[in-house]
Amino acid sequence: MTMIQAGDIVAAALAAAGACLVCSIPLDFLRPFPAWALRTYGRRALLVPLLIPLVGSWLLGLAQSGQLDSPAGHAMVVAAAFLCLNLAAALLRYYLSDYRKSR
Q1: What's the pTM?
Q2: Looking at CB atoms within 10 Å, which of 28, 61, 83, 101 has the fewest?
Q3: Residue 7 within a domain
């Protein structure tokens, strides 16, 4: 029998909050973001969109094979968290610098 622990509830609540946050971003905010990111960060901005599917597919493969609780699974979770944090920081910087000025 599987027991639900407090960490599972917190993880589910954080995932739901993140999904709600992502779904509430308006399209007029996201439309000019890629051009701004390329202008601000240069060619380095192209690295994150290329790494996200790669890390995501590895993470999904590890999860499907039941290896998520291995050192490789932990490394992929950390890599995915880093990429999400990097993307969130860029979105926040865009909002604070350019998006509010255009309104």
Answers
A1: 0.70
A2: 101
A3: no
